[in-house]
Amino acid sequence: MGLTAEQVSTRxxxxxxxxxxxxxxxFVVLHHCWLLAFPGFPVNDAPGWTGWLxxxxxxxxxxxxxxxFSLAVSPARSGWRLGRARTFFVRRAWRxxxxxxxxxxxxxxxxxxxxxxxxxxVPTGKSVIVYGLLLQDVFGSPSPNGxxxxxxxxxxxxxxxxxxxxxxxxxxxxxxxxxxxxIVVAVGALAPVVPAVDLLMRLTPQFAALFAMGAVCAxxxxxxxxxxxxxxxxxxxxxxxxxxxxxxAAAAVPALLLVVLAGPEWVVGHFFWVDLxxxxxxxxxxxxxxxxxxxxxxxxxxxxxxxRLGSFSYSLxxxxxxxxxxxNRLVVAPNVPPGMPAFLVTLAVAVPVSxxxxxxxxxxxxxxxxxxxSWKSLRAAVRARFS
Length: 387
What we know:
Blueprint: H1 5-8, E1 9-10, E2 13-14, H2 17-37, H3 57-76, H4 85-113, H5 125-132, H6 149-171, H7 173-190, H8 195-198, H9 206-217, H10 230-241, H11 244-262, H12 264-269, H13 271-290, H14 295-301, H15 304-311, H16 313-332, H17 340-365, H18 367-371, H19 375-386
Antiparallel strand pairs: 1-2
Helix pairs in contact: 2-3, 2-15, 2-16, 2-17, 3-6, 3-9, 3-13, 4-6, 4-16, 6-7, 6-9, 7-9, 9-13, 11-13, 16-17
């Protein structure tokens, strides 16, 4: 049995989604700890029971689907209307850019003054410009932070979001998702044989289909085409009562079998197609969580620790990589045997330090921009705090 409507949504917040963000961000941290202890990715020479940590990329898949879902919740409840596109872009920039630029500065300082990212040269002036303008997936340059690549992709998806909603509103979810997926699949199919199309693979085009999948799945929250129409409300209720968690499980089984049977080297070499296989399961699971099912999982994800972790998951994602690298390379590696001992000690040290640092970072550079929607409001809050 699902949760009640009041339990599922509190003051506009959908129960469980913050927990998903927190778990996904923490998984990326664990993934990077694993990579530093067992180099050679995608070859897995670690103990078999740790092999699942090789797939940190799939946490980013979940983030992208969740981003499309979260952004579409309000439009889905308003007939798929977004409002002014300019207002949407300004709000998105206000939300993601201040912590992103602060994390970029932090990452550059660490790379210049302490240690660069593994496998990367010291960042250059080009790195500052390219990463500062969120063009790292377009132009190559030494990376100051191994986690920042996906932020550029997400920012570009924000630009396409109003068009996705326009198509969805006029022609429906099937047409919008089908069109985006068809374009993405065509890019993936043509890339190996058409050099000009292959250039588009730098943009991780499969994420556009995943983002669209998340947006479409947010439609489960619609109560009907028009408020007050009983037929529409009954239809919406029937949609919400569908067994979304079972649909998610059914979609996940073939994707998981593919990952297990194909092996990490094949999977990493074919992330494009594997991501597309995993995306529907992630979207359907979010639809289930939004309707309060499965209730035990919703309660777990909405528990205070996971909800709190999710509240600063963006900051954790942004700044953990330089912290993990510094602690592993300069503290753990010189004093602990490589392999499993180094992995366990890195986990014990880097995870709590990263979480604590992200909490403090979020308090300065993320949460204030969530609570205050303009410079005027933010300045007033700062003056009030220190007056």
